[in-house]
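Thread: assembly with ligand

MN 10:42: here's the input set. Chains plus the small molecule as SMILES. Want everything predicted jointly, not piecewise.
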Amino acid sequence: MAAKRRGAYNGQIIYEWLRQMVRKDKERLIARLSNAVIHTPSGCILYKHTGGQTSKGYRRVSVTSEYKVYAHHVFWTLANCRPIPDGMEIDHECNTPACVNPKHLRPLTPEANTDRRNYG
Ligand SMILES: [Zn+2]
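BT 11:07: finished. Tokens for the full assembly:
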């Protein structure tokens, strides 16, 4: 299975992590995530949890004590019930790195994502 592949893109890891979670743990996770967001008038849902953030402002969620993933990747995967496609990045259409609203997120190739960043 692709998920066992060493170095698999973390989209697959997030999907497997959610898929293997028992219902009670998943409900607890969703409750934890829901309590960690702020809804803004613009429609952005900002993740304010303390899992840390990168220099670009992306928020992180702890999967295990030593493994963290991007919060917007977790929200996208939960909303779409499938792994982030291989080799794709999740782009913020709203240009707000902390936003986790699945409606503002879309998979893009890294090339398209970079172009968009450079040329708006
Ligand atoms: Zn947004």
